[in-house]
Design goal:
mainly alpha, globular
Length: 103
């Protein structure tokens, strides 16, 4: 797992600095928020062949998280990192599921 985590990648530096963002009234690490959104974006890119928005670039995600690969390999590498970080931080356990647009 050591070679999976690039300690010089921007996400790791942001994690060490403790940057947060307010999401639905709760403070969450900006790194965790970026990971959740990047998971969505990479799945759209790889599985649906669709860009999440017109300014999105896969190289931005690769650079920020320090991951490599193309297509399914990229998604697999990212998901390994994502699952590792989520299990270590316990992130995602406090989120409410919103069904039908109602809280």
């Amino acid at each position: 797992m050591k070679d999976l985590v690039n300690e010089k990648a921007p996400w790791f530096i942001d994690l060490e600095e403790g940057k947060t963002i307010n999401v639905d009234g709760q403070e969450i690490s900006i790194v965790i928020w970026n990971m959740i959104l990047t998971k969505r974006d990479l799945k759209l890119w790889v599985e649906c062949k669709m860009k999440p928005h017109r300014n999105w670039k896969v190289t931005d995600a690769k650079t920020y998280f320090g991951i490599t690969g193309t297509g399914q390999t990229l998604l697999d590498n990212y998901m390994t990192l994502f699952n590792h970080v989520m299990s270590l931080t316990g992130a995602g356990k406090g989120f409410r599921v919103i069904e039908g647009g109602k809280k």
